[in-house]
Amino acid sequence: MKYNKIYNIITLFSLTACGAMGFGKNNTINIYNNSDEEISINAYGGMKVQPKSSTIVQGHKNLLISSKNNQCFPLNIEKETNSQAVILDIIPGVLLGGIIPIIVDAATDNLTTYPESIIYNCNK
Predict the structure, then answer these.
(1) Tens digit of pLDDT for each residue in 19-62?
(2) Are 101 and 16 in contact (CB under 8 A)?
């Protein structure tokens, strides 16, 4: 009888895990420059990507990609909701009374994610 209560408590706490455990962070994005000229990205104080090459940007908030001399429209890349992590937070966490998973994922920026890759075209 005593062990059943302990087992139930351990099971309850294990079900209130945060979404970071299931899907981790996706704070990286691969940006490919399919243009004829160098492009700029507003990450880390300014990054340059040469034509027909790519770079990986990690751990930044929203990104702005612009062409040399602003010949093409700038591209704003915003992080999207990480629905898989949110589902893993809400179903066990909220329904079983725990808000810790949501707090952990919000603090670690796991509630948002980048798309896997972006191709920037500017051929003028």
Answers:
(1) 555 555 567 889 999 988 899 998 877 889 999 999 988 866 78
(2) yes
Dist CA 84 CA 69 (whole Å): 39
Checking 94-103 for CB contacts under 8 A at 24+ apart, the result is: 96/12, 96/15, 96/16, 97/16, 98/16, 100/16, 100/18, 101/16, 101/17, 101/18, 101/19, 102/18
Strands 80-81 and 112-113: antiparallel
Tell me the whole-structure pTM to 2 decimals: 0.66
Q: How many CB atoms lie within 10 A of CB 23?
A: 18
Q: How far apart are CA 108 and CA 92, in angstroms?
A: 19
Domain regions of the chain by residue span: 2-120
CA distance 52 to 106: 36
